[in-house]
Design a protein that fits this description.
Blueprint: H1 9-19, H2 22-29, H3 36-43, E1 48-50, E2 65-67, E3 70-72, E4 76-78, H4 91-101, E5 106-108, H5 116-122, E6 127-131, H6 137-149, E7 154-158, H7 168-173, H8 183-188, H9 193-200, H10 208-211, H11 217-220, H12 224-231, H13 238-247, E8 252-257, H14 260-268, E9 273-277, H15 294-301, E10 306-310, H16 316-325, E11 329-332, H17 334-366, E12 379-381
Parallel strand pairs: 4-11, 5-6, 6-7, 7-8, 8-9, 9-10, 10-11
Antiparallel strand pairs: 1-12, 2-3
Helix pairs in contact: 1-17, 4-17, 16-17
Length: 383
């Protein structure tokens, strides 16, 4: 299917499935356990109704907003997702260039396949770096210093990964970082020789921020994923967020919180924003959908924190609902990754164009001509 014939994110998902090796697609598409949280992330938006106001002047729609103290063209950001070159050779730089065209914030993952400085060199759009507090604090400190040097707008701490979630699709389809050991896995990649060449010969999937780190390079050995699992710290507390706050004086985002109490603790520890997220349904099974967490957090902490809805965005009306409930912005992960897999930068631009067009159309039909005017009067839980 040509990108121009992809009318929605679901079409891009089908095209991504056609283009990717089966294990890679299911790694992108899957969630934890029975994937209840994964499915609910999107379906939860269906439980909200939009209430339109008629005879409103919607001849122009003002989508501009701010995030992390920076102006943005619309209140949507690119969520941090690992190893973009797993899905397309153009990787993170292609996503950065697409995001720049849409006036968005771009987020780079610690597990990215492009370095902090290389991403910074692609564009001067606002960028956020997603980090973990590793057992080796020197590694985390090194990343913070690199972000300062490259003028990143914000730092994001992921807090919902004390251990990896039970992603059974990866076990069923034989996914690992590279097709080297399992016969079944190698056979599943046989139809994609160019992909195998990129991984084994060009080593496109190298997690460069880790492998080129002065703090980590001597300890990684031959298995980066094993090193990461060993570095995940189960004993972290909010005191560790305060430690991070002392080393980073810009906007600080906590990703992976869902309750009012945790968001309050985030603010008390020095965070300026939260990403309401269940890690795309890939960690705790049966965690609530992020959209269902917005209203309570906004009512309690809107004056202390920026609120970002992270998870399940597949339609422009999902963005409108999240903003009306009280979010400052939404972030998208799979939505743009399907586009990346389907066609590189052009595919990402197609995904963003679809969502942006749907968003503006929904705003017009809602009778709301500015994102600044969105509020609870435009949305209600289905009765």
């Amino acid at each position: 299917m040509k990108l121009a014939k992809c009318n929605n994110i679901a079409d891009l998902r089908r095209e991504a499935q056609r283009r990717l090796p089966t294990p890679v697609f299911h790694y992108l598409d899957g969630g934890a356990d029975d994937e209840l949280a994964l499915a609910n992330n999107s379906s939860a938006f269906d439980h909200y109704e939009l209430l339109s106001t008629q005879l409103s002047d919607v001849s122009s729609i003002d989508t501009k907003s701010t995030l992390f103290g920076r102006p943005i063209d619309w209140p949507v950001m690119i969520s941090p997702t690992g190893a973009s070159k797993l899905f397309h050779a153009s990787g993170e730089p292609a996503v950065v260039r697409a995001a720049e065209k849409f006036g968005m914030v771009y987020s780079l993952s610690t597990l990215g396949t492009t370095t902090i400085s290389a991403v910074a060199a692609v564009s001067d759009l606002p960028k956020m770096y997603q980090v973990y507090i590793f057992k080796d604090r020197a590694l985390t400190t090194e990343f913070i210093d690199l972000c300062k040097e490259s003028n990143y707008a914000a730092l994001c701490l992921t807090v919902d990964t004390p251990v990896a979630g039970n992603r059974e699709r990866d076990l069923v389809h034989g996914f690992s970082a590279a097709p080297r050991s399992r016969v079944r896995q190698v056979l599943s990649f046989a139809r994609y020789p160019a992909w195998i060449a990129r991984v084994l010969i060009r080593k496109d999937l190298e997690m460069l921020n880790l492998t080129r780190s002065a703090a980590a390079s001597q300890s990684i050995g031959g298995d980066v994923r094993l090193y990461i699992e060993e570095q995940l710290e189960r004993s972290l507390t909010w005191k560790d967020v305060e430690w991070l706050r002392e080393r980073w004086d810009g906007p600080l985002v906590i990703k992976g919180v869902q309750t009012v109490e945790d968001c309050r603790k985030a603010a008390d520890a020095g965070a300026t924003a939260v990403m309401l997220s269940n890690h795309g349904g890939r960690q705790l099974e049966s965690a609530p959908a992020p959209v269902d967490c917005i209203a309570d957090v906004a009512d309690a902490l809107r004056d202390r924190l920026e609120i970002i809805c992270d998870g399940g965005i597949r339609r422009g009306n999902h963005i409108v609902k999240a903003l009306a409930l009280g979010a400052n912005a939404c972030s998208i992960g799979r939505g743009y990754l399907y586009g990346l897999a389907a066609g590189g930068q052009n595919g990402v631009e197609r995904a963003l164009h679809i969502l942006r067009s749907e968003f503006e159309r929904t705003m017009a039909l809602l009778g709301c001509n500015s994102v600044a005017k969105l509020g609870r009067s435009y949305v209600r839980k289905r009765r």
